[in-house]
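Co-fold these.
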Amino acid sequence: MIRETWLNAATLTLLVAVPAWALVVDEPFTITLATRAVIFAIAAVGLNIALGLGGLVSLGHAAFFGIGGYAMGILAHHAQTYVPLEIGPLTLAGTKSMPVIWLTAMVTSGLAALLIGMLSLRTAGVYFIMITLAFGQMFYFFAISWPAYGGEDGLSIYVRNGFPGLNTLVPIQFYGLCLGVLLLVLGGMFLLARSPFGLALNAARQAPGRVETVGLNGQRVKLVAFVISGVITGLAGALFADLNRFVAPTMFSWQMSGELIIFIILGGTARLFGPVIGACVFVLLEHLLGGLSEFWLVYLGALLLIVVLFARGGIVGLLSGRRAVHD
Amino acid sequence: MTDPVLRTRGLHKSFGALVATDDVTLDVRAGEIHAVIGPNGAGKSTLIAQICGTLAPDRGTVTLDGEDVTALPARDRARKGLARTFQVSALAMEDTVLQNAVLGALGARGRPWSFLRAATRDRNLRDTAEAALHRVGLIDHAATHAAELSHGQRRQLEVAIALTLAPKVFLMDEPMAGLGADGSKQMTSFLDGLRTEAPILLVEHDMDAVFALADRISVLVSGRVIATGTTAEIRSNRDVRTAYLGEDA
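Predicted complex below.
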């Protein structure tokens, strides 16, 4: 327990120190890489609420990541082309303001999570995995065949969106913003896991019959967790699109959903910092091994195999010397 | 005489050709322990499932405190005052004893929609949970993980969670199972005092416990209640002796 706290503190220190060092030695690419890791971490912390606490193995979280991305892409696209956005009788101006984009991303991905969750939670186990995958794929093919926003080619945004008081075009400032969001999300996750809601969610995963026997609606608790999870992953999607100044259907791909799960398994399921460490290791390997061989995913696969076979608690479990929180 | 707290009328459940519950009518009155006994395969588990709401009967009704609850799911019956304990402990094994008891208190409160404050630091939840743990004698193990408890302690925790619900009636599925002689004695004396708080429908294999505790006994054989009566009546009932208790009982 105590060693895990130290490990978390060390991770946070690195998340501050490495980009600071990169700033001093003028290595903006390292800062971009760190930003990518932090945004992936936010998305995976979101998934960890459903997967780690609720035991809901969603292979469709790319849907929310993509919705967040397209919320940013569509709003910014209308702002840069000065064409208002028409939704039925409503006519809205596009925007380049991050807070507005984030809010839109969170609300739309939350609504999508509510709908997908309501239908998917009627199933469990492998069927839940399959139905969430199917929903993810529906969004993917919809994005590909929707010509208004670039279809298969995606959508480029020329200038990064703005945040009050910051110059988001400066890599370290955008990084700081993303790190701030990650810290907020981690703080929320920390509180949530210990709250009455978190207690009920944890119990609904471990002993569903017990939760009903004390008079609580376990399915509803899981649904709310799924929505919170989708909202956070959607927010990460908006940030990811802003990092690349580009949105494409690949954000909706099932590989994206799979990667989010990999971050969690690699780092440690249901651990507060598991997804953070998993995302950082993934981005680091992607950069280092990706430079050596285009078949770097083979090595990642081998690593994942080792973790699953010998370190069920992921990297956090291995380093903190504590067994898996749960299987 | 007051209405019974819990009553089943003409419960019937069959699985294909197998009749698991055959016209079961029984009631649990205020202040009593009503035991249901029967050989393996008599349909005790199926009966419990229908009473607590995890299995729908083909025919018949379940009434809780005068209200027909036959159509309600298990969680609504729980909220209306039916507290069950499981034969095979159903606990959140990775959670501590206190957290498990707090879950019960949270169920009694009914609303889990609180996201920020730690559950075990909520004064009301904690007080309810600790009071229940104190009563069953588990308070010294509050910080232990449920997975590390002995079999007997898990049974105690099952009962503690039921206590946090402050129910109108307890439905206990073999609380003595696997307890050993001493544990069984302790549990017997604990349940003995509990009946004044809320009556108990006790499904139990341990005959010593049943005859020590029960005010009335119903005997279930092949899904059918063949006799209901006081311990003395059941002991001397010829049908029961031949069908269940055996020649030498």
